[in-house]
Specification:
The chain is of the alpha+beta class. Helix content is about 20%, strand content about 35%. It is built from seven helices and 16 strands. The strands form four sheets. The protein has a four-stranded antiparallel β-sheet with strand order 5-2-1-8, with no helix packed on it. Strands 4-3-6-7 form a four-stranded antiparallel β-sheet. The chain is elongated and about 75 Å long. About 25% of the residues are buried.
Length: about 375
């Protein structure tokens, strides 16, 4: 029987090679393992085998004690149809956009929450979105507040953006504004993703991103008019992590002290999903770099605890003209060290309002240690 099976395999290989049939690995595996088993069960000789043909047990010369076995050939046919893994991409290609924005993970940084409701007018083919309110937004201004508003768009269409009104000096804004997306049949909405992005308005510079949320509409029951509270998450390009910094200035000794305490949720730079972070600090006077300090490298972690103290000599008359450039780096044994994220602390050219406020608090409270979590910025 082993010789027959071997000759059958050789014969089938010759047939397929002559026909120039290309099979994916899974089909080849099933064809050359399942089919011979089927032949052995039914008792077909290789020279008389015909594709798809099963002997009739009642015909002359057949073994009446053997029951025909059919499922194996059907399994191959099923794989060639919808169940075959190689067809998965074509079946789900319309959901590829939706899959990009399905994220059930907890937000790595606290950006607040937003409340909104969704309903659908089936007669008018109109999606109705009501942006209600937000709470616990981070302070983006020197006053300890923000001027938040919301941009709304139905992805993948990025041209038609809608905006709420700006709410001044608040971390818990209430908008209660309704937006209508007309001419969207229910089938079309199943391929759309609702994007709500909260910004802090700034009159003299680019508006700061506070956080965003993506809502794949294929996951929403549009007949129930749901109301949601969703956690805001920082945009991917801003997900560099956070660092806890303390500042202290002694006017009598002209000593400026920065302590790099720890970092959290750093961006992974290595193929193992980790980084080898260290902190590098430059003291600058204007555009001139004066002095550099750095911490040791902490291997394979995204939440390092540095506890490194750096002291710089800065006279009181120059304290408002200097700055500290803080960079969290990823150490690399082979290539060049990569930047994970950075921030600049000064009274004039900081990388954000929180950084400026931290510096001003240090000056306003001499000889006192002032701590602040800072979101790292990309280059």
């Amino acid at each position: 029987m082993a010789d027959k099976t071997h000759s059958l395999l050789l014969e089938m290989q010759i047939v397929f090679s002559k026909a120039q049939i290309k099979l994916c690995p899974l089909e080849s595996l099933l064809l050359f393992t399942v089919v011979p088993a089927c032949f052995r069960t039914i008792g077909i000789s290789p020279s008389k085998s015909v594709e798809g043909e099963v002997p009739n047990p009642s015909s002359p010369g057949s073994d009446k004690s053997v029951t025909p076995v059919i499922p194996q050939n059907k399994n191959i046919q099923a794989l060639k149809n919808a169940e075959h893994p190689s067809m998965g991409f074509w079946q789900s290609r319309s959901l590829s956009l939706v899959d990009m924005y399905i994220d059930n993970a907890e937000p790595s940084e606290s950006c607040g929450q937003i409340q909104f409701s969704i309903e659908y007018d089936f007669e008018k083919n109109t999606l109705i979105l009501k942006v209600m309110q937000a709470k616990d937004l981070p302070a983006m201004d020197l006053t300890g507040t923000s001027d938040p508003y919301v941009k709304v768009v139905l992805l993948p269409d990025k041209k038609h953006k809608l905006e709420t009104k700006i709410k001044r000096r608040t971390l818990n804004p209430k908008w209660n504004e309704t937006f209508y997306f007309e001419g969207f049949p229910i089938q079309k909405l199943q391929t759309r993703v609702l994007h709500l992005h909260v910004f802090d308005y700034d009159r003299f510079s680019k508006d700061d991103s506070i956080g965003e949320v993506f809502v794949p509409l294929c996951q929403i029951d549009l007949t129930s008019k749901p109301v949601y509270w969703r956690a805001l998450k920082p945009p991917p390009k801003y997900k560099c992590g956070e660092v806890l910094i303390s500042l202290c200035y002694h006017p009598a000794n002209s000593l400026l002290t920065l302590t790099a305490i720890k970092a959290r949720n750093l961006k992974a730079k290595d193929i193992n999903g980790k980084s080898d972070p260290y902190v590098k600090v430059w003291l600058n006077f204007g555009d001139k770099r004066v002095e550099k300090r750095k911490t040791p490298v902490f291997p394979c972690t995204l939440d390092p605890v540095f506890n490194e103290i750096f002291t710089f000599h800065v006279p009181w008359e120059k304290i408002r003209d200097c700055s500290l450039d803080v960079r969290v780096m990823d150490f690399d044994n082979i290539g060049r060290n990569e930047l994970i994220g950075r921030l600049s602390l000064s009274s004039k050219n900081s990388t954000g309002t929180l950084e400026t406020k931290h510096w001003q608090d240090m000056i306003a409270k001499p000889r006192q240690t002032v701590l602040q979590w800072h979101r790292l910025k990309p280059e």
